[in-house]
Amino acid sequence: MIKKALLLLTLGISLLSVGCQNCNSVASAQTVTNAIAVLHPTQSHQAQGIVTLTKKGNTVDITVTLSGLSPGEHGFHIHDYGDISSPKGQAAGGHFNPKDHAHAGPLETQRHIGDLGNVKADQDGKVKMSWTDSTLGTYGLDAIIGRSLIVHAKADDFRSQPSGAAGARVAQGVIGIAKPSRP
After folding, report:
1. Which candidate in 45, 74, 111, 152 is catalytic?
2. Closest CA relative to residue 99, chosen from 110, 108, 90
3. Which residues are CB-neighbours of 66 under 8 A, at least 6 positions away?
4. CA–CA separation, 100 vs 161, rounded Å?
5. What tens-digit pLDDT sequence spans the chain (183 residues)?
6. Residue 147 near residue 112 (C-beta atoms within 8 A)
7. Selected catalytic residue, list 45, 74, 95, 111
């Protein structure tokens, strides 16, 4: 297992160095303005969708399009690791919390950076929502690129520590750099 991991790491570094022969064309973390996460269902669930994150000044616009959920509210969080290898979403770790705050709602000034609140599925199990967040970042301590987005089975109660008692992880995806939009 360790040999396989080292081989994959070496291969990844090799591909990165080959692909970066013209690194001026690769977006630096400081210039990332568009990010995307394609969410896939975890084991025994059907939830899936796309989340786009667009940096605009000191805020990030979030647009969520999901299907395959039960009607009602579902916890929606950024988690520490961009590892979606676990069939139940456990490899993503806990909520992204670099400032070591308690779990709270998305409107609180002190919260996990990953505490994005709830998304609400309609009677057909679909979500189409947009909002703006002033806590997320694309570089530095608050960087969300390379982390994961998780949708939970139940609503986040904004109180229970450390994760809002939102239940099982029903969809997961890695936040990646999206192709820049053209004016």
Report:
1. 152
2. 110
3. 39, 47, 48, 49, 119, 121, 126, 127, 151, 171
4. 12
5. 444 443 333 334 333 333 433 334 344 445 778 999 999 999 999 999 999 999 988 899 999 999 999 999 999 999 999 999 999 999 999 999 899 998 988 888 888 888 899 999 999 999 999 999 988 877 788 889 999 999 999 999 998 998 889 999 999 999 999 987 755
6. no
7. 95
* Residue found by looking up tokens 């709602």 in the block: 105
Catalytic residue among 45, 74, 111, 115: 115
> Which tokens belong to 42?
């975890």
The answer, yes or no, to whether the previous bond of 162 is cis (omega within 30 of 0) is yes
Pair of tokens at residue 123: 């009677």
Residue 27 phi, psi dihedral angles, 5° rounding:
-65, 130
Note whether 170 and 91 are within 8 A (CB): no
Chain length of the chain = 183
Residue 49's identity, in one-letter code, is: G
